[in-house]
Design brief:
The structure holds two protein chains of two kinds. Chain A starts with a helix and ends with a helix. Chain A contains eleven helices and no strands. Chain A is 80% helix and 0% strand. By secondary structure, chain A is mainly α. In chain B, α3 packs across α4, α3 runs parallel beside α5 and α5 runs parallel beside α6. In chain B, a hairpin with a 3-residue loop joins β12 and β13. Chain B folds into two domains: 221 residues, P-loop containing nucleotide triphosphate hydrolases (Rossmann fold, 3-Layer(aba) Sandwich), CATH 3.40.50; 69 residues, 2-Layer Sandwich (Alpha-Beta Plaits), CATH 3.30.70. The chains are: A mainly alpha, B alpha/beta.
């Protein structure tokens, strides 16, 4: 456990001390919480505005989680590899899985900090959420699935990409691409092909139940609680995570 | 007891032979230096000894344990300092040490106690709470050496630790290594800087994946004492003078230095008057002549040149 906590502590400190990471991961979604209602919600009836602000806040929370998993995690792994850390730790009696779990746990804690912060800011800005304990627990479960799938993508990026900048930007690029297909742009506004894609893609498919539960059934435009969607979301998220771990242990660690 | 025993080590990579039947014995408590040019196979040898690369053939024993049969046991005996600056710039010196101590298997409490001791030992106590990004190159390398000194470590392996250092920082690091060696630690230093190798008890030269010579620095200097160097300080340097000096030296090595030329010769008493006469003829006066014994770098150069020459002749 010492090794796990050593890696966790190092990774979290590095995240929290890097202004660029804080800015791109929490700062940008925070800006979107304020900016998007001003730009896009001008003609929306006033009584529907708190719900849209709530949906936007949940979308920005999801964006933060995706950036942490896909960009921050992969960027930090590649940066460590570039400066020879893996050459050093490969000479230690250390299990790669324990090492990466420490990194992932740090990313999870950083995601929780970001989520709380954005949730509170969104709420203070007028976002409305329908919260009861059961729905909240289920919503947190789906947010965790988003984290798990994002982490898997981040681990794959860190294994196949050389260069911190390339890994970080690719992570942000994928996060934004996914964000605009079913998270930032609502399901009902998407063309039918992208609607289908958003129900298969585990990240957008896991975001849908969060909105459905915390903003109400009418907002999302469809019922995501079907056996096929929930099962495929869980399977694909854990599969991405498993592939990520495999790549990390067999490719990233040995590069 | 032998600290490191390498037997018939071969490493091939994509049909290229990187290590060619390396045999090496390093005794416990020895200060061993491995010198070699880039691409000679030094880093590959180190990565096999540290258990991070598998060889094609051969065996490596560390304090009696086979590195491939008991990797974790062996890894807990070796403290490795790679060439790169691997410490995190966003953590303090103390935080970095805690991280590596815990990765090496120490409990948090033991790691904290050890950190205090090792910071003091490496002269970094006053800067322990500074971010590593604020450290100088020398301080950072000393911190990185410290990460490899966790309790239980018996062999310290350093890959070109003084590259890019100014003389003061280099001396400070080498003094620290000598101190650590005096306390009983076996040191395996990889370098291409001759002056670093002078501090070792045993020096080995490596070229094209082979260890071509291995002895103490003083024995090597005695063996190659005929390779003296005449240092000539001149205010004019050009290709004509260079060629003339080579002719006088009968084709032996002459190199241009910052202040003039260095003429390597077996019989300086024969060459010296000829050089003096030539410089008088062309109206160029040397401000300084100095006869120096060969350095380890000189010996290394001569030895590798000789090997290359022999190889070429064999190929012909």
């Amino acid at each position: 456990m010492n090794q796990f906590f050593a890696v966790y502590s190092k990774s979290l400190k590095e995240y929290m001390r890097d202004k660029v990471i804080i800015g791109s991961t929490i700062g940008t979604p925070l800006l979107f919480i304020f900016l998007l209602p001003i730009v896009f919600f001008g003609n929306i009836p006033q009584d529907f505005l708190p719900t849209l602000k709530g949906m936007n806040t949940l979308a920005q929370i999801t964006l933060t989680i995706m950036i942490i998993g896909q960009s921050n995690l992969s960027g930090s792994i590649v940066a460590d590899r570039e400066r020879g850390l893996y050459r050093k730790i490969a000479s230690l009696p250390l299990n790669p899985v324990k090492e990466v779990l420490g990194r992932i746990f740090a990313s999870l804690v950083f995601s929780i900090i970001g989520t709380f912060f954005l949730f509170i800011i969104g709420y203070l800005y007028g976002a409305e959420f329908r919260i009861n304990v059961i729905d909240l627990i289920v919503a947190v479960f789906f947010l965790l699935l988003i984290f798990v799938a994002s982490t898997g993508i981040g681990l794959i990026i860190s294994s196949v990409i050389n260069g911190e900048s390339a890994a970080t930007h690719l992570g942000i690029g994928i996060s934004l691409l996914i964000f605009f297909i079913g998270i930032g742009i609502p399901y009902t506004q998407l063309p039918s092909q992208l609607q289908d894609f958003s129900r298969i893609n585990p990240l957008t498919a896991a975001f849908a139940p969060v909105v459905y539960l915390l903003e109400g059934p009418g907002v999302l435009g469809y019922n995501p609680f079907t056996f096929v969607q929930i099962t495929s979301t869980i399977i694909l998220s854990t599969l991405l995570f498993g592939i990520g771990l495999y790549f990390y242990k067999n490719v990233a660690w040995r590069k | 007891m032998n600290a490191i025993v390498v037997k018939n080590l071969i490493k091939d990579y994509e049909e290229i032979n990187i290590l060619n039947r390396i045999n090496l014995i390093i005794e416990e408590g020895e200060f061993f230096t491995l010198m070699g040019p880039n691409g000679s196979g030094k880093s590959t040898l180190v990565s096999i000894i540290t258990g991070t690369t598998l060889p094609t053939q051969g065996a490596v024993n560390i304090h009696g344990s086979d590195i491939f049969d008991e990797p974790n046991k062996v890894k807990s005996l070796i403290g490795y300092v790679p060439q790169e600056n691997f410490t995190s710039p966003r953590l303090t010196g103390k935080e970095n040490l805690l991280y590596f101590a815990q990765l090496s298997g120490l409990s948090k409490k033991a790691a904290k106690e050890w950190t205090k001791v090792v910071l003091e030992k490496m002269g970094l106590s006053d800067d322990a709470s500074k971010l590593v990004s604020k450290y100088s190159g020398g301080m950072r390398k000393r911190l990185e050496v410290a990460t490899a000194l966790v309790p239980g470590i018996k062999i310290l392996i350093l890959d070109e630790p003084t590259t890019g250092f100014d003389p003061a920082a280099r001396k400070m690091l080498l003094d620290s290594l000598l101190e650590i060696n005096r306390e009983g630690m076996t040191i395996f230093l990889v370098t291409h800087i001759g002056e670093d190798a002078e501090v070792a008890k045993i020096v080995a030269f490596m070229k094209n994946g082979e260890i071509i010579v291995q002895d103490s620095p003083s024995a090597l200097k005695t063996k190659f004492k005929e390779q003296n160097a005449i240092d000539i300080k001149l205010h004019i340097r050009n290709s004509d003078i260079h060629r003339a000096l080579e002719r006088i030296n009968k084709g032996r090595r002459v190199i241009e230095t910052k202040e003039g030329y260095k003429v390597y010769c077996e019989s300086p008493e024969e060459i010296f008057p000829l050089i003096l006469s030539y410089l008088n003829d062309i109206g160029c006066s040397a401000s300084k002549f100095e006869l120096n014994p060969p350095s380890l770098e000189d010996i290394f150069f001569f030895h590798t040149q000789e090997k290359t020459q022999k190889k070429k002749e064999e190929e012909k």
